[in-house]
Amino acid sequence: MQIRQLYTNCLSEAAYFIASDGVAAVIDPLRDTDTYRQLAEEEQAEIRYIFETHFHADFVSGHLDLAEATGAAIVYGPGTETSFPVHVARDGETFSIGRLTLEVIHTPGHTPESTCYLLRDESGKPYCVFTGDTLFVGGVGRPDLFGGERDEEVMAGDLYASVGRLKQLPDEVIVYPAHGPGSACGKNLGPETQSTIGEQKQSNYAMLAPDKADFIRQVTEGMSTPPPYFPVNARINREGYTALAQVLEKSLKALPVKAFKAQMEEGALVLDTRSPEAFADGFVPGALNIGLDGRFAEWAGSLIPFDRAVLLVTDPGREEETVVRMARVGYDNVAGYLQGGMDAWRKAGEKADLVISVDPDELAMDLPYDPHIRVLDVRKPAEFEGGHVKGAVNLPLETLADAGALADIEERQNLYLHCQSGYRSMIACSLLKREGFHNLRNVTGGFRALEKTKGIEVIPPNP
Question: What pTM value is reported for the model?
C-alpha cells in the first residue's frame, strides 16, 4: 500500500496518490499533473480513478487533463452535475484499488456534493479518510461558498450532520484533509496537515460543539470574506478548461522590449514575480509585484482581473513556473514575458521605478518629528487586532485592488507600509504606485521587527 500526500504550500492544498498491486488513484489533483503520472510510473501502477471531494473554489483541479492522459474515470459524490463526463458515485459505493477499498461517504455542508473517501486496508479495516473540505485539522469547511438557494446556516446544518458521520469512525483512522494552515476554505486550521479522528474529537472546535445550534453559531461567526477568485475557480472546475499544455504554448512567448511595451500600451497588466527585494531595486513602471516565493497563487487570484491580458517579468528560468502557478487558479491569459527580464529593460534605456525601503529604526526616528507620517498596516484585521503600531491604519491588502479603499489617503502624507514580514507590504507598495502614490516607504521586517524596535509603541491585543 502506497499513500502519498502531495502538499502545495502557496495554496495550502493537499492532493493524494494511492497505489496498490498495480492500480493507482489520485484525489484532488492540481492542474499540473506530471507529478501524479511520474509517481504512477515509479510504482508501475495504472491510474484508474481520479476522486474529487467537491468542486474546489481555491484552485483549478487537474481532473480533466489527468483523465485525458490516463483514461482514468473522474469520480464525484452524489448530486454532482458537470459539463463533462464523470462517474457520480452513490453514498456507500465502493471502489477497488488493488487490494484496497475506497468507500464513498457523502458529506454535504461545505458544498452540496462534498464527499469524503474512507480507505480500507486489505483486511477491510478502516485505515484513513480523505476529508476534502469537510473536516480539517482544527476546523471544518466554510458553509458560505455555495451561493445557491441554500443559505449558509442551512449548509452549516448539513455540515453538522456530516461531521457527525465522521465522528462515528474509529479513533485511529487517519484524517487526510484537502487543506492546511493559511487556507481561506476554513478558519482556525491547525498547523498540521494530517491527524486522526480521535485527536480531532478531542481538539477540533467543530467536533466539540455540544449541539447543532452551537455548531452552526461557531462555524458561521467570524468568517472572512472569501477571495474574489473563488466563484471563478468553482465554475471552471464544474464547466471545464483549456488543456494546460495549450496554455503553456500560448503563454510562453519571449517578448523583446519593444513588443512588450506595445502590449502594455494596449492595456496588458505587468506582473513582476521577483522577490520583494529585487522588485524594490527597479521595476517596469506600473508593474504589480507578487513574488513567487510566497503565497503567490492566492494573491494573484485576489488582485488580478481575470479579463485582462497579463505580461510577466520574472527571474530568468522561472517563466514556465509562473504560468503554471497562475493556471492553478484559473489564469489562462498570460500574453508573454519580458525577454531578458529587467536587465534587458535597463539596457534598452527604459525608465525603471523603485520602492524605497527603510528599517524600523528609521521609522522610529522620523515618527516624533514628521506630522505627515501615516503608517499603513496591510495585514488582515485579525492580525491587526492581535497587536499593532500605535496610530497605524489597517488597510488589508485584499482591499487595495478597490481604488475606493484609498480614498482617505492624502497626497501630502508620507506613507510607511508594513505587513507581518515584508512580502505583502511590497505587493501593497506596487498597488499604490500604480494608483499614483509615490511618497511611500516599505518597512523591512514588517510588524515582527517593529514590535521589537525601541521608540515604536505597540498597542497590544484586547484582553
Answer: 0.93
